[in-house]
Write a structure and sequence with these properties.
single chain; 2 helices; 4 strands
Length: about 80
């Protein structure tokens, strides 16, 4: 994958494997997303995309769920 972009986001509202599946499916459907890895314990999602994707676009993908997404800032 050339020029792929990888970002890690905090996902709020997850509590079980079903939550993980819903978040992964919804975020995977966003145009440009090539990979989604969700970590329930850390409440994080690592999203790989073919180009820049705004956090607003990702939040919109979770619009009809109870989950929230926010970009983690680099330490």
């Amino acid at each position: 994958m050339e020029n792929s972009i990888k970002h890690t986001y905090h996902i709020g509202g997850m509590s079980c494997g079903g939550c993980v599946a819903t978040v992964k499916n919804n975020l995977s459907a966003v145009s440009g997303v090539t990979s989604v890895q969700v970590d329930l314990a850390k409440k994080q999602a690592e999203i790989t995309s073919s180009g820049a994707i705004k956090a607003d676009t990702l939040q919109h993908a979770l619009k009809h769920t109870q989950y929230t997404i926010s970009e983690l800032r680099a330490a």
